[in-house]
Amino acid sequence: MKTTQQPSFLDALIPLIFLVLLLAASVALYGGDSSYGPNQIVLLLATGVACLIGLKNGYKWQQLEDAMVHGISVSMGAIFILLAVGSLIGTWLLAGTVPTLIYYGLQILSPDWFYAAACLLSAIVAMSIGSSWTTAATVGVALMGIATGIGMSPAIAAGAVVSGAYFGDKISPLSETTNLAPAVSGSDLFDHIRHMLWTTVPAFVIALVLFTIMGFTEDSSAQEVSIGSVQETILATYNISLIHLLPLVVLVVMAIKKVPAFPAIFIGAIIGAVWGMVFQPELLARVAGGSSFVEVISVVWQAMFDGFSVTTGDENMDKLLSGGGMSSMLNTTWLIMTALMFGAVMEKLGLLAVFVKSILSAAKSSGSLVTATIGTAFGINVVTADQYMSLVMTGRMYREEYERRGLDNVNLSRALEDGGTITSPLIPWNTCGAYMAGVLLISPLEFWPYAFFNLINIVLAILFAYLGIKVLKKQPA
């Protein structure tokens, strides 16, 4: 029986160099549209290069194919959630839930304070329900709609939503990643959260200050006129009242009660469909071209699989009040599947472990070890395209080294979140980056410079590590 051989450093380097060069070419040629096909082809080609190295090292094709299938199977939960979110957005547009959020949001949110308020609101919701994804799909969609309606920058608005959502997610004991990081590293959940506050809170405060400055430096005179116009169009198109927010309330309650994300979001989509038939009969009849039961059901059905489309006479408002459907998430699903195929082959062949061995030999101090952990978590996020794989793989690779050096496990769990959880939405082909692009309708390539919390948190984490601030030693038993 033919045995497999250990990969060399060059073996590990070739697929990554190939991937980086082709991704750079993809962005240069297609810009913001690179995630709508070009990047998927790049990931497939890079997977092919990794497979060739695997065949050279003695692996059989069936082993590589099994690894790819397993890699995709890991993402199925995320794909189910994505499809459910597509239906939810479609029916909530039809039901008037999103337009109602936009309408009342325009009354409450001043353009000067919009970016800071969007960040803070996203943080509160994410902390309450423990999910950055659900926050982006609900409050985030409404905030992006408000930003578009009043002429604010979509890129900065998306950065504010992502910043707030990931801050709230990180410090919530309900969050999956906040529970996963200490579980992998061997630390206590609440010790982990308390230890994270040293980097997350200062980063969030700085982010709020920056968003406030950006809001006050924009010209709001034209935006005030735009606000009235948007509200008038919404009132002319929908029946607006607080009762239309009930689907959102039900979804938030289910999230707090820890109902699994996929059924909770899909139930929210169904409630939105029923709410639309009950409270928006005139709109549905106008869109359907008739008021018969069959015609109305046809529109609702289409909203779930292909989104909802409305005509207001204003092209910008039509874009604002239309969208959603499961079909809107198919490109994102395609991107996730191809990215995870590449990551699965890289892990199967042991190509990632080669880099970690080299890194550990160079990381002599505690500061350099924490920095190496953050860098590795980010790198695995890039290569495997999944934040869970980033947390688990990095935690497995470094836990023994932290214990050998007498460092408390909370140092590792915080570094995992700083390098893994925080960076995931900034990578276009990562499951989180692809999800945010699909929900907020803007590429991470455009909003990452404005995800202030995510960026500042990484800088503070590395700075604290080298200065020895809150790098805790193990307490004697």
TrEMBL record:
State the membrane topology.
Answer: Multi-pass membrane protein
Task: Tell me where it resides.
Answer: Cell membrane
Residues of the Na+/H+ antiporter NhaC-like C-terminal domain: 164-469
Span-the-membrane segments of this chain are 12-30, 36-55, 67-93, 113-134, 141-167, 196-216, 236-256, 262-280, 292-313, 333-356, 368-389, 447-469
What Gene Ontology molecular-function terms does this entry list?
antiporter activity
Q: Which InterPro entries does this entry report, sorted A to Z?
A: Na/H_antiport_NhaC, Na/H_Antiport_NhaC-like_C, NhaC_Na-H+_Antiporter
GO CC, one annotated term: plasma membrane
Q: Which keywords annotate this record?
A: Antiport, Cell membrane, Membrane, Transmembrane, Transmembrane helix, Transport
Q: Primary place of residence? A: membrane
| Superkingdom assignment | Bacteria
The record's family statement is: Belongs to the NhaC Na(+)/H(+) (TC 2.A.35) antiporter family.
Q: Which NCBIfam families match?
A: antiport_nhaC
Quote the protein name from its UniProt record: Na+/H+ antiporter NhaC
Q: Organism, per UniProt?
A: Psychrosphaera ytuae
Query: What is this protein's gene name?
Result: nhaC
